[in-house]
Amino acid sequence: MGAATVRKSFHLALVFFLLPAGVGLLQAATAQEGEVRIATYNVENYLTMPRRVGGHFRTSAGKPESEKQAVVRMIAEVRPDVLGLMEIGDGRDLEDLRRRLRAAGIDFPHAEFLEAADSTRRIALLSRYPIVERRSQENLPLWVDGMMLHSPRGILDVTLEPRSGYRIRLLCLHLKSKLEVAEYNEGKLREAEAREVRRRVRDILRSEPATRLIVMGDLNETKNAECFRQITGKPEWPDSLRPLPLSDDRGERWTHHWGSADIYSRIDYILVSRRLEEDIDSARSGIARPPYWREASDHCPVFVSIKPPAS
CA nearest 125: which of 177, 172, 73, 71? Predict the structure, then answer.
């Protein structure tokens, strides 16, 4: 080994030695030219609600400061250009997170924020790129067992333009949770939401088959569930979506830990249309799971790297 090689190896080792604990290769790696990184992240109750703080129950308290800081660190691990958020509170909570991210060197000048039937937990999208079209649906009525219900979070639907002439349409979702309610069957509401998403995907891809489409978010279901199959469609359909087989640095694919049952499962997804699939950089896509992930949320961020073709 020559002297130059030894010096290079020493410098690389020093760089990684000096990185703060918990900072993974995602953050250490520089973004590649032309890369577009899109992520989805359930930030677990980034809002004001009844919760236990410091061993005492409070009827109204925000997400603890230590958890907010951990959320920002998690997002900094991924450094997305576009970020879909689940379980964000009101507009003040979203602005609080944007301010903290800006202080960490991650600025999102563009945003989409939905206020749907669930007045507590909402979905939002932050973007470095301009939002050129907005088709989000906050008021989404659904029939379930003869009752008129509403999708708790609606469908966030925007089109982004990372560069001139290259557009990505993005649907961000947070389907009804599995928490039981007395008034209706939560599973049937989730399936009704999935059917509405399938209808929208079908309309988009049948009217414009070349659309670069992403459907992402917290679906609150595993891959073997009927509502998951509803959204993706059958593989042979021209308007089907492909669930990206994303994993962490250990090859594991779970995205959520349900603490009370001690169950690890994959319920957060990024699904893409055939037209967009050819632009995916699989080697730079995955699930972010640094050692401190549980300090931020019961979910992990899922991200995809897109390399638009040279014009």
Answer: 172
